[in-house]
Amino acid sequence: LALLDTIIDSTDGVPIGNYLSQYFANLMLAYFDHWIKEEKRVRNYFRYADDMVFLASTKEELHILLADIKKYLAALKLTLKGNEQIFPIAENRADKHGRGLDFVGFVFYHNQTLMRKSIKQNFCRMAARLNKKLNISARDYKQKLCSWYGWAKVSNSKHLLKIIIKSQFYDTFVLRCKAV
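Given the sequence above, the corresponding structure tokens read:
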């Protein structure tokens, strides 16, 4: 507690950059994680800070679990944000019998993983800006885009890369970023 008090009081206003909210989420929800996995025996549970995903075979299972979670959190004097949703996950983007799960910057489907739309748009905008520069070095080009490439390489985005990466840099860009 003394360490937390020192961090909180280290600056005027909100101490940006020291990740207190993530730390508090992990501290407060560590026992919740154990309860979900060990007592409730939920196999498909994912959490990043205070964002949680639960997967089950039926909506009924999820509604029962949601009620149990609300009771558990109420005992800790915590509540859910109120944006909880229960829905079927689609097979892919074209499947109209469900939808994708938007979580940690990706949209997950059963057979497909895509970048979140806003991340893809920012990637395309930056690539377009760099593609207009006539005398940009391959090194600078790669350096500006490699972080977005990280998103693209773990999602189904190979076609996107071929379209937006400047043709003269494509082969070295993809090969170089894979090696990094």
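The chain has a mean pLDDT of 88. Try to locate this feature in the token string yourself.
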